[in-house]
Amino acid sequence: MSLTLAFDVYGTLIDTHGVVVKLKSLVGDKAVSFSQSWRDKQLEYSFRRGLMGDYQHFGVCTRDALEYTCRVYQIDLSDQDKDSLLACYRSLPVFADVVSSINALKAEGHALYAFSNGHPEAVSGLLGHAGIEQLFIDIISVDELETFKPAPAVYQLFLERTQSDPEETWLISSNPFDVIGAVNVGMKAAWVQRSPEAVFDPWGVEPDLVVSELTDLSGRLPGPR
Q: Is 83 a known active-site residue?
């Protein structure tokens, strides 16, 4: 029996700051900080909607977060420019380590799934654009439950859909809140610390494994039994 690997998508496989190139043409030297603020607010809006029980899919959170960020930076983008940025979000690039690491883990016999806060169609489009969708058995999205990670029900959905044992199921994510959410329901978790400046939340919950790149996972996860 192989391990079941749940790969977070946004920020783990897909570089959410891939939009910076387009932002530079619109907001100049504010592009990097604008992108980070947009991403932070996108996540905050998903958390708030999950807590409120007022679900709108991740694309709506992304759009609303863009509107908010424009107001914070006092940048009056046209509707056409906003649409262009949102279109970029639908074709974000994968990180450089993704393709080789996914292929290596698949060759080791693990069962690979994409597991995301994103809407299934959006995730499918991103993975298809990157040419890696076929490497995953399935895409499991929170949209099915109309809430967001790190709600416990989302991780339980993953376990039920994959019929996997929590002890043999690993979440792979660069998002500390996601790692903590998975560990909270008994899953194993690897934190991808893509930047040495990234800080893990001091909640008394630790990832089972910390790597700086996805390629570091190969050979470090327990082998198939």
A: no
